[in-house]
Write a sequence for this structure.
């Protein structure tokens, strides 16, 4: 990477860029940092939050009294991505620092009305803590992804054809489409209740595994 000593640890590069006494000091970067926490302990974490003047203007233009999107990207642990390296408290600290850096305009503090997130409760909790009146909306793609993973876990679909499971899978997929399209909470609840009743009836058929179907019916509450 141009101008970056990749043989050096990230925290030392950052300290050099942000330290006015360093020969590698970068004032344009230092001026854009609104939150910086050095890693001073073995179990600690390095944190840096950057916002240019253009980014700040865009936040006021598009997100104030409007909508923002929050989606976290996480460092890998072994061969799997993990959410374990952060929690709601850390996210509240970062969002609060960002909110404070944006300040106010005409006496009105920066306040988004709506936020879209995936199904991560830590992100949603942090947003609600920072802006108590914010409306939280789930991303449809991530909801479908979550339901798909849950469906596969419940049905244990293998590579061989299994007619009963295929029937249940089709019913659940149809239910998911209807739930995504629904705009009324009570109507959506009714869709789940009706499907639970239908699956309970299917469980009475000889070819259906009654015990597994009973568990599936109860776990449909997950979609409520």
């Amino acid at each position: 990477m141009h101008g970056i000593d990749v043989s050096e640890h990230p925290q030392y590069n950052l300290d050099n860029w942000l330290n006015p006494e360093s020969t590698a000091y970068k004032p344009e970067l230092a001026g854009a940092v609104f939150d910086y926490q050095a890693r001073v302990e073995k179990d600690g974490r390095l944190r840096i939050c950057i916002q240019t003047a253009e980014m700040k203007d865009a936040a006021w233009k598009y997100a104030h009294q409007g909508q923002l999107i929050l989606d976290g990207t996480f460092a890998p642990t072994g061969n799997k991505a993990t959410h374990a390296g952060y929690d709601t408290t850390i996210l509240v600290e970062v969002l609060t620092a960002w909110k404070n850096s944006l300040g106010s305009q005409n006496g009105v503090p920066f306040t988004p009305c709506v936020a879209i997130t995936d199904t991560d409760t830590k992100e949603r909790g942090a947003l609600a803590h920072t802006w108590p009146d914010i409306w939280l909306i789930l991303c449809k793609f991530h909801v479908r992804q979550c339901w798909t993973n849950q469906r596969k876990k419940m049905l244990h679909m293998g590579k061989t054809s299994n007619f009963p499971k295929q029937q249940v899978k089709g019913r659940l997929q149809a239910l998911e489409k209807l739930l995504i399209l629904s705009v009324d909470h009570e109507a959506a609840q009714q869709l789940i209740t009706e499907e639970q009743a239908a699956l309970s009836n299917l469980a009475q058929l000889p070819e259906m595994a009654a015990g597994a179907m009973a568990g599936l019916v109860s776990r449909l509450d997950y979609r409520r």
Observations:
- Residues 132 and 196 are 35 Å apart (CA to CA).
